[in-house]
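Minutes, project check-in

Agenda point 3 was the complex the collaborators sent over. CS summarized: two entities, 243 residues total, and the question is how they sit relative to each other. Sequences were read into the notes so everyone works from the same version.
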Amino acid sequence: MLTVNVRYFGKIREILDVKTEEYTVEDGTKLSDLLLKHVTQRHREASEKWVRTVFRTVKGELLLNRDGTPVLNNHLVLINGKSPSLNYGLKDGDEIAVLPPFGGG
Amino acid sequence: MKTKVSETLDQLDSLVNELKASSDEIGAIAIFVGTVRGKRGNEKVIRLEYEAHETLAPKAMKNIIEDAKAKYGLSDVIVEHRTGVVNVGEDVMYVLVASKHREEAFKAVVEIVNKVKHEVPIWKKEITEKGSYWIENH
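CS then shared the predicted structure for the full assembly.
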């Protein structure tokens, strides 16, 4: 098992009603699994809005790349400050940040 | 170079003096002041609420400043942005660009302001008399 920390900002933080949380998941879990399976399981009431906001959907279904990975909806997901593929295999201690489109100024 | 992402901004005149004191080659300082508008279309705005990624926001500002200094040969740049609650009429962002001549300062201040809006992890919620909205810069 491995444990990661997830931080949410702006609209996303408001949708899930949490700033930061920990997930302990099985070895080999991908970033996309964390965001689509584990986050939605923990936040069942907000899950539909979460998926619709963070990922691109067509008629309620996830839009997938040719390799089967989902497509982010103008959001940025950083792990330890870098932007990996959603196929990234999580490592123990990863610091994940989910960033909505920016709105400064 | 100076960046600040905080609940308060420094005094504008002290920032100008800081730039003037940094070099005797400065002949122009272009300043942008972002303030909170009281209207969103026909809706009355009550306040804005900002949040930022506390480590990545200053880092992104520094990258923007370094790029602009290299591109325009600027003497120095200061970027400050508020977080937390900002009321109508209050200042929310300062960009000060110091250079030898005015042309590059004018060009750089526009470019830096646009980049801060699009490349710095800061989020803004607008609270009006009718509701609240997360504003995204496109």
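Noted in discussion: The helical segments of chain B are 12-22, 56-72, 102-119.
Follow-up: revisit at the next meeting once the mutant set is ready.
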